[in-house]
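Q: What does the assembled structure look like for these inputs?
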Amino acid sequence: MNLVDPAHPPSRKAPLVWAIGAAIPWLLLAAGQVVWFAIDPRLRWVHALAAVVTVLGIVVFVVVVPLWRYRVHRWDIDAKAVYTRTGWLVQERRIAPISRVQTVDTERGPLDQLFGLANVTVTTASSAGAVRIVALDSDVADRVVAQLTDIAAIGAEDAT
Amino acid sequence: MTAPAGEAWHRLSPRMLLVHPVHEVLRQIPLLIGSVVLGSATGNPMWTLFGLALIVGYGVARWFTTTYRIDSQEVRLRTGVVQRKVLSVPRNRIRSVSTDARLLHRLLGLTVLRVSKGQEARGAAAFALDAVEAAQVPRLRAILLADSLAPAVAEASAGRELARWRPSWLRYSPLSFTGLAMILAAAGLVYQAGVGAALQNSRLAKSGLDAAERFGVVASAVVAAVALVVASVVLSVLRSLVTYGNLELRKDADVLHLEHGLLRVREHTFDMRRLRGGTLRQPLLVRLFGGARLDAVMTGVGEAREASLLLPPCPLATAEAVLSELIARPDAVTGPLRGHGPVATRRRWTRALALPAVLLIAMVALYPWTPVWLWPALAVLTVCCAVLAFDRSRALGHRVDTQWLVARAGSMDRRRDCIAAAGIIGWTVRQTLLQRRAGVATLTAATAAGVKGYRVIDVPADLAWSIAATASPWVADNDWARTT
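A:
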């Protein structure tokens, strides 16, 4: 027996938002290095090493990781279960039955609001079993929440 | 006596009028010292008396301001001298009642009664009646649990004894590190209090150093080490005896009673319907002597602070018999497990031998400067790591059917988790990059009980979802399931 991967990718804007989210701290770091170089240009090789590390970090976390995550992230819902695939280096596939769902939360960070994205978290009675569907278009997220709250008889029992 | 479930506010036992002031004085020692200092500095002893009176008065006031009430819907506790606080717990949410009697409480025939809701919100204050008369405890427990455990309490029989502490169980305790930890903690405390600096120049330290020089440094170090080990063993055994002496595990229909302690008696009542399985834990040193400890996997009871402990280290046969009795499935407890195959074994060996390999490379690279004694040390380390790898790979295994998931792993802290399939509310298949390349996966069963997530480590990837589907039919009954 095997499970095929879930069908739906996140929003097309997801890699862009992830890239911007990752770029902010890295650019701050790069700016700090420029300031440092302007103040104290001795020890060239230390500056060169720091610059190489920063450029590598930017390439990996701002370019490679968002694209990689976009290829991995998938989600799906049917009448009985929620199923997601997440991660990049470490990948997780997680499935939870809708009958045991306790809450369905939507969450939007500042960047998400700017680009019209939303994250949906489906919690069960186990902290090891919460399913997160990240970077959905807002209208898709609303549909998902409506669909989930519709199917799940939330509050009918304590679902443990 | 008033009606037990009456709607009146009750006070705690009047004997707490004696206990509260003593506890307050112990708790407010800094304040007391301050008032003594103030008293002697001003030459007016009234300050000292005033401070003491204030503390004692506060203790007495605590009794007058603490009341509890058990009505048909919920139990409520009002506390606080200055800042008033009301705690309320709906009666149908009460999952367990535990009691605890420290020495002073026991001398006065008192018991602290704690009510647990099962799922404790983080940071929520515990509902504790500190304290009621010991004679009232059975009555109060019956009332408190009446809603959630009606049939079980109604029988009120003595129940069946599952296990009773034996002095022979003490043989597993010298091998724990609790004694050493206690010595280190005490030493740290003494040192922090400034005794270390005072000792450095004292005559005691000088005479000790002189003696050490006379006997020779090596001999003194050996003597000190032996003394430390002996003290640690004695402390471990004593602690085990005091904490778990007189332990008794009893089952009455739907309720599990656990009682233990020689000086401080603790009693836990568990709701059997919340039981989702059990974990046999065998730390290396306990396992070498054929022992095991047993933890309950229960909704709302975590492993922290030994809250889920059912049996302390005891003979493996005893722990297995008790768990079999609790979950009524002896094959899940003792039955053979399905191994995880050569890939999982290889991964255990790679991991264990990585450290010696790195050290070897470093030592070869720095060959001319490597001290000679490092080579035998490396050989010993390698052998230890190999033994660890062998033991870890042999431990890995699982067993699954429609009712129980069993997973075993670990060497230093081996555990065999038996989880009821009905309690599993989610599955995760997790693969690192290396796991994907090796074709294995770590399967996690999410449950509301115990540590929440129970892992089956490094199963072949194509088997992972089959295991999940065997235990939880809903995994195979959806749009994504394919039979291959």
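Chain A has a mean pLDDT of 90.
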